[in-house]
Here is the input.
Amino acid sequence: MRMVLCDDHLLLLEALSTALSGRGWSIEATATTPDDAVKAVELHEPDVLVTDVAFPSGHGLDAVRAVVDHHPRTKVVILTGLDSPDVVREALEIGVAGYTRKSHSIQTIGDVVERAGAGEVAVDTALLRQLAVRRTGTRSTARTLLSRLTPREQHVLELLVDGRNTAEIVAELSISDSTARTHVQSILSKLGVHSRLQAVALLHEEVAGRSNRDEADRPDGDRLVAAGRPARLRVSGV
Here is the structure.
């Protein structure tokens, strides 16, 4: 996997470059500003851009948007100390492939990058849950959108939540690659989102709302959301 790294902290940039190179990946370039990151992507067309979004020179989401819009084959993974729901929401709306925090270990960060590069959902579930709880005003909308999915599409969405890629969905459901991709595109269309990440975030949003509604009546061991992520989410009947 070929990648470009961008961060204004040189020590972190060097450590990350060394660690990811140690996993057998090729670091095509490093950058310390969003503008330089975009130029590096234009020059190298990497598989993944790993970048912060908070820079002294300006907000890095503008650069992320430029890469997503003009270099769609390059997956963007945000590695940052920011966990603001507004920033996470904007990143998902732009279409990033991953979002994780600098407080994680290098091993965890590398795993997120690898999953994003493979086309999987790669975002901190704690951030998704925080985002879902913040968006209290749209729970009924989320519930309505999810109710449009067929039982098979609901199953596919569950697999996306579990981080399954297209090949794994094909194996799990014994369907063709084209059928799996059709299901995914149908899910995105019905939910009115543009990426698998956004679909997963929408499901977290509804689960958080349902959990809050039922919390008073549920025993602690039977909460729908536990340990920071939904477990085998079912959206049928919503």
Notes: The chain has a mean pLDDT of 79. The chain has two domains: 2-123, 131-230. Strands lie at 2-6, 26-31, 48-51, 54-55, 58-59, 75-80, 98-101, 122-123, 225-226, 229-230.
